[in-house]
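[job 0412] stage=fold_complex status=start
inputs:
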Amino acid sequence: MPELPDVAGFKQYLDATSLHQPIATVRCYDERLVEGVSKRALQRRLAGGALDGSVQWGKWLFARLDRGGALALHFGMSGQLAYEKQGGDPPEHSRLALEFANGYRLAVLSRRVLGRVRWAEDVETFAAEQELGPHALAEDLDRDRFVELLAGKRGSIKSALMNQSVIAGIGNVYSDEILFQTKIHPARAVSDLDAADLGRLHKAMRRILRVACDKGGDARKAPRNWLLGKRGRDSSCPRCGAGLTGATVGGRTAWFCPRCQIEP
DNA sequence: AGCGATGTTCGCCG
DNA sequence: TCGGCGAACATCGC
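[job 0412] stage=fold_complex status=done
writing structure:
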């Protein structure tokens, strides 16, 4: 699930449930998710403090501590958050939980354990270390900046859009959506695109991600004329009705309309 | 039973 | 140096 709009939904959820409550303790049910920081260090950083806000950067969500630093969460392919009353067992696949003094807890779930939990002293520094490109919905990611970021890239446009060190937040599903709505074939070389193409891509990227975030990343609420939710062998193009094609591009399965998105 | 899945990383190769 | 490719990671559902 988690690409930029999904993580935006997690951010809303975290902000609505978990801020400004004293953290009593940190439970770590599965250390495989935690990287670069010990259980004991996490406990020391978090217990006694409170979350006072969150920051999203691409697919990363940073839960900021009021005494400095932030818990950095990456949801992999199957992560989510669950806020609930303490008491019984935490939800299945809970790997970590913050237990608040008010008797509730925020559990970090990860079915496939492909996500990560780290500690970040400073979000900017963390992003630089991870070599993250700008957040795809960052205020200052205007058209000129977008063109600069893609300039000189040699591979396919789909790979470039999914490359987190170019732009942070876009994955397999939303790269397909952006290319579908701009009628660009996923395997087109970046170097083959002209200024008008890049302008359309930039505009579509911003609009699509903004709309998807407004829906809280819920694919079921996506507009009918989007590709989202129609990915798959038995689906047809919402624009022209042609059967969709699946092909491997950038190591992932790209779904696209063979009639609207012309072969490179 | 086997395959693929909304992600990332690593080694190998051109 | 950059990118493509396949494998690996772990788990579930079709």
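[job 0412] summary: Residues 32, 78, 93, 110-114, 153-156, 159, 248, 250-251 of chain A lie near DNA strand C (CB under 10 Å from a C1').
[job 0412] exit 0
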